[in-house]
Amino acid sequence: MQTTSPGVTLQTDRLELAASTQADIPELYAFLGDRNAMRFTHCDESFAACRKRVLVHEWFRRRDGFAPWVVRVRGTGDIIGWGGLYTDPFDPGWGPELGYYFAPVAWGQGFGHELAAFALAYARDNTAIRQLTAFAHPQNVPSGKLLLRLGFEPTGFVEAMNRNRFTFLL
Length: 170
Prior knowledge:
Elements lengths: L8 E3 L3 E4 L6 H8 L14 H18 L4 E5 L5 E9 L8 E7 L8 H16 L4 E6 L4 H10 L2 E6 L4 E7 L1
Antiparallel strand pairs: 1-2, 2-3, 3-4, 4-5, 6-8, 7-8
């Protein structure tokens, strides 16, 4: 069983995935706090809000065994994203979710697919998760297409979130 404890790095063909550290937060906030980059999802209103979100998710990693990974480019170590499996502590009730958040410099290069496909395999091989939920804003067409290509099924529109909901059975 793989783990993503602090200090452990997982790898895909082009990505390195690791638990978040306090040192990562400034680079994460550069895009997680960017209104344009996060226009279809949650945007952190301040550095403090981003720090809180990242650190609370890390607490959930200790509890659940999974949480969003910091996504780096293999070879350079540049942080380009944050995502993977998580149970959302700030919007509970949806169960385990798949989510991905990328800096604009990483858009359109297939990193979302690479991260999401790895997360699905990780969930299957390393967790007791049997169903995942994912959300995509209706105007975020690439994200919706990505979820469908991975095998997620559309399960309706959540008006309160202004998001399409998708589910995946493992």
